[in-house]
Design brief:
This protein has three helices and seven strands. With 173 residues, the chain is an alpha+beta fold. The protein is globular, with a radius of gyration of 16 Å. The structure holds ligand GNR and nickel (II) ion.
Length: 173
Amino acid sequence: MTPLTILRYPDPRLHTVAKPVATVDARLRQLADAMFQTMYEAEGIGLAATQVDVHERLVVIDVSEGRNQPLVLINPEIVWASTETRIGDEGCLSVPGIYDGVERALAVKVEALDLDGQKQIHEAEGMLAVCIQHEMDHLIGKVFVEYLSPLKRNRIRTRMLKQKKDEEREAVR
Ligand code: GNR
Ligand code: NI
């Protein structure tokens, strides 16, 4: 299977606000499956539909060591977040090679549909809590670099544009 193409910052489509999933059907299960394959191939711990240019509220996550604990969140909503926060380094498949600190709630409770269309509540802390918050930001068009200073963000934008140019030059050689 050919993996889906992951949009890269500063692609403006990464700032699209996703719409709720209307029905959990075979099409959605197929999309989730393709997203898992893309995420595993890219060695990420999460992927939001926004990153593959599908603007619906769907994310896939697997923070397990064995890469064998897939989690699908459809129409996720955070129903509780701890007031206690932590700053941790984050990366993003849409901003390859960049890692920087972002402040997040230490723990969250998220309500979401699963692939059977059943409402589930997940209590998360640690890496899973970070990942859920990172993925849900993608669904509202937000990339983690937007938490960084304008100076850092501009440096990242310039580096990403140069990287893309270099790749395009390499491709025609
Ligand atoms: O693979 C990923 N690693 C990661 C590390 C720290 C905080 C968040 C993440 S999510 C990221 C995959 C991704 O870009 N998801 O949108
Ligand atoms: Ni990301």
